[in-house]
Amino acid sequence: xxxxxxxxxxxxxxxxxxxxxxxxxxxxxxxxxxxxxxxxxxxxxxxxxxxxxxxxxxxxxxxxxxxxxxxxxxxxxxxxxxxxxxxxxxxxxxxxxxxxxxxxxxxxxxxxxxxx
Length: 116
Ligand code: SF4
Ligand code: SF4
What we know:
alpha+beta; four-stranded antiparallel beta sheet; 25% strand; binds iron/sulfur cluster
């Protein structure tokens, strides 16, 4: 079971990114977050969310949800370059220390984050 994102509900508000950084560092430290909103320069109003798990990157784009093995991304098979900085971050621990479960899920204003 892991965190998943519904890209068609997501509004790129970044609340999950802030929440995850807070969960990691008790501060709004975006660089500590394992869930990240990204945009591209070449496509207007285009965005997605990337989540780092132990063995996979979960990439939610308007086209759909994609799960990539981290080894494949490291070898250059990961497609877009925005995924690569995620490899240095800690993996999602499902907010194991929280009784209420994933903080990102709790804070998402449009219920775009779910467990599957
Ligand atoms: S909190 Fe929800 S709507 Fe906001 S960026 Fe994260 S997944 Fe998208
Ligand atoms: S479940 Fe917790 S550790 Fe995982 S992405 Fe959400 S806030 Fe971050």
